[in-house]
Amino acid sequence: MRWGGVLAGVLIGVLVLGALWWVNALAPPERLSRAVAAFYALYPASTGGAEVERIECSPLPSVRLYAVCTRGCDEVWRIVAVRGLQAEPLANPGRLPPEPPDLLQRRFNALVARQRLELDAEGARRMIACVMRLNGFHPELILRGNDIAAAMAAVGDDAAERAVVDRLTASPATDRMEVEEDPEGYRTRFYFWDTATLGRPVMDLDIRMDRRGLVRSVVTRPAPLTDGTASGNTPGTPPI
Questions:
Q1: What Cα–Cα distance (Å) separates residue 226 from each residue in 148, 195, 203?
Q2: pLDDT tens digit string along 159-176?
Q3: What is residue 231's predicted lDDT score, i.e. its pLDDT?
Q4: Can you tell me whether residue 206 is helix, strand or coil?
Q5: In principle, which of 16, 68, 208, 233 could form an S-S bond with 216, CB 3.0–4.6 Å?
């Protein structure tokens, strides 16, 4: 009888803990969140060999974002949000035919809306960095001033590219991100080095969001570099 009572107590404790994890009243261990993400992304296939990488998004402390891949993302590549022990899809970049281009933004906005945020300028910077990561860009590679010419000159030279990347990653990306307020929220526009694309081009990125963190638009285009006189911008800086 005594052992039966102990086992019953342990079972109740496990059920209570599981319930707290399920509703996110208590954050589950990171390892468990990764397992949930992998299971959700790959079911009914096995999660063996899954590569699960956390996507940093500090403005969403109660939600964990993960990229789940198999075979280096050549086979499966999905982005999943995990809250407690509950998961939901954000994107399937590896799908053929591709998903509608605005689907990630709509799903992310629905996720953010439930958090009831009210962002200041610094919070907007961190949310913009999160949006960049979800879109496959690296906020650490935001370029300003002389960094642009250095990035362009380094293309094709592994040592030079690494030197530029090391210099950029030595300082917080948000320090190079200028955010302006407008009547609808925040806007930022800057150049970044797209090292994941063939030719490693410098791109011009324009992101707008409201004060709740909902993304209004993400526009990417090749960087129209000027000497800073024709458009009224400073050299190496896109006009806002």
A1: 12, 21, 13
A2: 999 999 999 999 898 889
A3: 44
A4: strand
A5: 208
The HSE-up count of residue 185 (CA atoms within 13 Å, CB side) is 23
Query: Three-class SS of residue 90?
Result: strand
Candidates 143, 93, 94, 124; CA nearest to 209 is 124
| CA proximity to 62, closest of 26, 104, 35, 109 | 26
Helix (H) or strand (E) holding 116, with range, is none
Residue linked to tokens 């969403």: 60
Task: Name the token pair of 98.
Answer: 């591709």
The gap between the terminal CA atoms of the chain, to the nearest Å, is 74
Beta-carbon contacts of 175 under 8 Å, excluding residues fewer than 6 positions away, are none
H or E element, residue 78: strand 76-83
Dig out the tokens for 73 from the structure.
Answer: 């993302």
CB 59 within 8 A of CB 123: yes
**Per-residue pLDDT reduced to its tens digit, 35-48:** 999 999 999 999 98
CA-CA-CA-CA torsion sign (227, 229, 230, 231) = positive
Q: Look up the pTM and report it.
A: 0.84
Number of CB atoms found within 10 A of residue 116's CB: 8
Per the CB < 8 A criterion, the answer to whether 75 and 96 are in contact is no
Residues counted in the chain:
240
